[in-house]
């Protein structure tokens, strides 16, 4: 997988993508004076950012959004603007962290929990009690990285299963052979897609892939627009659906719809996409991807309303396709299945790559920390000083902490793009997906389960991001408005996650008013914690001065 750093900007070591800056001349010199050049440059740049939409709009999103429309009509339409606003706030903050501090979220967490000690303290440290030693050791335990990696790996592996299953679902609709041949056909189709995803990610040019995925997103917008308008909808019902409400037994579906629109894995993809760009270019790209995702999500919900389920009937993609054929004609049916197949390939690529990027971001710094501690314990203090000097020299020349971390590792770092760990994550996801799809497990159930994990992961990532953005050592700028938006998003997501997951954990014991109280308490505690992180260390004068400066 080729790495092509931009010529003028230090490249993040974890980045696989090279952003096509709109300020760079990507056209031939003879066409430089043409008015089409800036337009084409903008289009290419936006298609590059459409990778975020491509990773989001997969069979998982199509299934959950269509299920929400089939089960509850347009009553859960409010989840789309909520998730879209949250996505923009979170992705924009991650982009600023990458641009200003030169760190991915994993690198920022590493610096926050593993700050570089002063090798020559001005005064001898005071003796520590046993309790103080235990407390001091807690931040150096990489629990947060392991926990986040576990949630990311489980959630995204289950979601990858859904992406791989999407292609077979579109083939299965037309194929009805005897059981032995049916199983062989399912195995061959699934194996072919898994091998294609692995081949593209291991051998393909990611820059060109991202632009191709952007074109796929455009095709999906056209496809689902035609299907939605053929089915039809009431504008009054659509706008009333933007008022938050939770019909009976809809909390899990609502949480999944939010988690699949504001996809946690995009937090790590955004870091790679933002590398080498200005904040203005990044905001434009994130805004484009967010709007496209919101439009597609609403269109799919409308398409799902065409499948009016009877009492006791469960949602099924094949039934939805047949309903579309009966109500809107053969064209709508074919377009829906084509969109499902296209989304399967595009999301299969981005989810697998994004999960590997996430684990790389969260664990590469821990390898460095372990090696640094081993060197400190086994060698003399002179070696410790030399390592610190080396870090400071790198900081002066590159100002890129992620590069400094990787520089301490061996040249064949296992978390590099071609390393065995990075590729192992991709292979693991594809193997699990192959086994799940060929075994014939319920695809809808797997998708809902993956989004429940994603719904728990999302507020966790938001809170970690809030911590990093307000760490003075990061060198980032976080205004009061940006803090308020991030705290608000984290609070709402936490309350909704608890509301959805608590009945599952308590085996249905927590229901009704008690569930509302528990989720409200969880949201309130998160709100207090977020306020403490964002403004707990600031005086009233500092708070006022920041507002005046931002104005």
TrEMBL record:
Residues 10-31 have a biased composition (Polar residues). It is a multi-pass membrane protein. Keywords: Membrane, Transmembrane, Transmembrane helix, Transport. The keyword Transmembrane helix applies. Residues 1-31, 377-398 are annotated as: Disordered. This is Uncharacterized protein. One of its GO terms (biological process) is iron ion transmembrane transport. It is found in: Membrane.
